[in-house]
Amino acid sequence: MILDEEICAFLATVCSQPDYKFQDQEMHIVKNVQMDDSYMTFKLNITVLHDAFTDYHTTKLTKRQIKQYIQTCPFLSRCNRHGDNHKTKGKRFYMVQARKSPHDEWIFKRFQPTLVFDTIDYAISEQSTVECLQKNGVFQAACTVATRFCLIPVVHHPHMKVKCQFQAAWLPHWLDWKDNRLMGIPNVDDEDCQLEIFGVLKTPTGEVPLRAAVHVSVTFHAYPGQLEQLLEDFLWMLFSGQETSDPQGKPILTGPLKGKDAAFQEIKVMPEPFKNAFVHYCNTTAQTLAPETIRQFVQQSRLLLHTRNGKYIKTRGTTAWICQRQGEMIIPDIPTLLCSQNQVRIQLGVPFCIEFKISDSHVIHPKPVFSLSFEPSWLRWEDHTLCGLVREPVDPTEIIVSCTYLDTMMNDVDLEAVLHFAMF
Predict the structure, then answer these.
(1) Higher confidence at residue 232 or residue 297?
(2) DSSP string covering 313-360, please?
């Protein structure tokens, strides 16, 4: 198609220019390009792309015809695996994946409907879904003995949410179809298995056959939800004095229990003896678990505070962690985006500033990236401070401030705060 050639030429220009703008509007939602195998992933503003390509194309088509083409263009993906619009920083975007040829020309990936899989982790929540990843072209799913398992086939269509009826060439005795999902509870004698799932997707242009393989591993390992409960139980044992040392006899606590009021108490633990003791506790209480899995889980747990007042917690020069209880509850550390004011009263011609700070006991100096759901011309960023100056009356406005940063385990942390602006 002529339009296919035109949009590829247009996208080649856009992908070559990270600062590409159309009528002073930026095309790229995110400047840093992500790598997916040999392809680079670009996130392009939907509205800007529609307007820019309508202005760029040379065919005698109406704006509506151009828009209809873009919405079904094989080189653009509008929806994620669950059929929802791609979004980042509150903005919808088209995803484009491209790579350079040996002749330095852009080659764009064609998106098409594919069969992917989710599982439900009932050990955590009936609403907690886990995306199945691929290894050597086969999706990988894991289930636990005596725990309900659910495998959900999903059609990832690049442009819309679709439904499809699925079948399997073969099923083990403990799995069965229910509401287009595979469900069952494996027994201790059940072994790993590989399933072939297939279906036919009906589209306006014809039928699209779908097929994929899933390897289901049957394990004895505890799930994160079970580890969380085990960790909480173990911490209560420390508060009650039932556990005081690790298997090598090293003390876990750095000193006596703090807090005269029984309603609030605090303990300070040594990280390595604590991890060793908890690994031993897990392996004597639950099924056998990989020690590194447990240690990594403890390192990331929000039930243990790593910093206080912007400094790492230490005892006699040695790193320590803190755990606090209030009544019958262990107090978790919840990362929060704090701002100097949420209700902002604006005065004409009077500058104002809103300062932001991240409260996170696992990170000393986070390096957040801030964004706004709506960017009026009278607001600007200065480091972690949002500054403004209004010269003409404005309507009451609600703006969502989003920030993303990496914690010490290099995991993404996303936080939000809501600001309400009104004239004084």
Answers:
(1) 232
(2) -EETTEE-EEEEEETTEEPPP--EEEES-SEEEE-TT--EEEEEEEE-
The alpha carbon dihedral of 305, 311, 316, 318 has a sign of positive
| Rounded distance between C-alpha atoms, residue 145 and residue 223, angstroms | 11
Residue 266 structure tokens? 């605090």
Q: Is 201 exposed, middle or buried (0-12, 13-18, 19+ CB in 10 A)?
A: middle
Can you give the pLDDT at residue 225? 64
Tokens read off for 384: 């972690």
Separation of alpha carbons 368 and 339, rounded Å: 14
Beta strands in 136-279, from DSSP E residues, in sequence order:
138-144, 149-156, 166-168, 176-178, 181-184, 193-203, 206-219, 264-269
Segment 95-115, tens digit of pLDDT: 999 999 889 999 999 999 999
Q: What share of the chain is helix, strand, coil (3-state, %, to 5)?
A: 20, 40, 40
pLDDT tens for residues 35-73? 656 788 999 999 999 999 999 988 778 888 998 899 899
SS3 state at 35? strand
Residues 6+ apart with CB under 8 A from 222: 123, 144, 230, 282, 286, 287, 289
- Do 83 and 163 form a contact (C-beta atoms < 8 A)? no
**Residue 149 β-bridge partners:** 121, 184
Query: Which residues, at least 6 apart from 177, have a Cβ–Cβ distance to it below 8 Å?
Result: 166, 168, 183
382 φ/ψ angles, rounded to the nearest 5 degrees: -130, 95
Task: Return the pLDDT at 147.
Answer: 77
Evaluate if residue 269 carries a pLDDT over 80: yes
In this prediction, residue 34 carries a pLDDT of 63
| Integer Cα distance of 75 and 32 in angstroms | 20
Closest CA to 386 of 228, 396, 394, 376: 376
Backbone torsions φ then ψ of 356, nearest 5 degrees: -120, 145
Strand partners, 345: 422
Beta carbons within 8 Å of 159's beta carbon, 6+ residues apart: 71, 72, 77, 78, 79
Give the whole-angstrom CA distance, residue 177 versus residue 183.
Answer: 6
